[in-house]
Design goal:
single chain; 327 residues; alpha+beta; Lipocalin; 2 domains; 8-stranded antiparallel barrel; 7-stranded antiparallel beta sheet; 7 helices; 15 strands
Amino acid sequence: MSDYELTEEYQKKLESFLTDIPAYGGGKLSSMKPGSKTLTPPFTKAQATELKGVLEEPAFQRYTGYTHRGLLEKWSDPGNRTTTCNEFCTKCANAMGYVAEDKNDGVGRFDIADYLTRMGKGHCWVRADAGQTPEYGDIFRVFAPSPDQNGVATNHMGVALYFKEGSLYTVESGQGGPSTGFDAIERKVRGWPVPGIQGWVSMRALLATGKRVEYWQGGWWDVKIGKTEQWYYYFGADGRVLCTSEKPTILSAPPVDGPMVTKGVCTKKPRAYNTLQLVWYSRNALDVNEELQLGIEESKKRKFVMVGKTASGAKITATRMMITGLL
């Protein structure tokens, strides 16, 4: 009898996708087949490239996109600590039905909370302090100053499966690295809460969410109208925009629906560069139309500012509120 029951189709797809990974206690799926020669640093790129007898493990490549030799060539650089946890998480998300909208739109990335928020999908990120637990297929993010097996701070992602007797059962790649001479995928049993867990992607929510917004648009904005009005706008997926006078305390989550939140729709202005048109369903019993254009775009500094005006001509300045820290 199984320790869990899968009720959603995306969860069943993930279960089927993971069949080549050994069962709990059955070892790891390595980047190289058993019996292959192991290189551990220091070694040169030439040694990695010309190494005889390295037998690639095709299942590992299917799960991560990496070959064993490709990893060795990266690790020939003494400062390179590449492992494959992120890529594995992206592959799992794809197996569950997540369709990337461009080549950079992967779920396996360390800035996932900020990324989802910027795409208008911040509601898909569940903070670890939210009082919830991940579901089968949810992708969690861990950061801790304690060193991992490669001697660096733990900076990691994995896939949650199910709970049993107070423990979280997971499947995770990045279970090797340059110090071992190979990378690997392993099913693990972790105590709950997982040390250093920052939160997780709700795949249930993500798969039900519509088209993302532009990379500069989504999430919270600090909005000033005229000389006296102060508002906070939240831009979400599928042209949804919300407004409140209360400053948000959590930048990765939209406002909670209530009488203090005004709803509206946001569309792009035709034939105009990065210009948005907003229509509010109601504010002080009047529909208000606003137009905003991206005025400052400094991606490296993570600074974005929009300027515009209301239908009555009042000046608007909006500055995106950015998530800070490792998220």
